[in-house]
Amino acid sequence: MLKKMDISGNPFIGVYCHANEDFALVPNEFTKKMITDVEECLDVEVFQTTIASSSLIGVLVSSNSNGLVATNFAERDELKAVSGKRNILFIPDVLNAAGNDILCNDRFALVHPGIKKSSIKKIKDVLGVEVEYGTIAGMNTVGATATVTTSGLLCHPHTSAEELKTLKESFGVEGEIGTTNYGTPLVGACMIANSKGAMVGSTTTPIELGRIEDALVL
Question: Which of 95, 135, 141, 151 could anchor a disulfide with 217, C-beta 3.0 to 4.6 Å?
Answer without folding.
Answer: 151
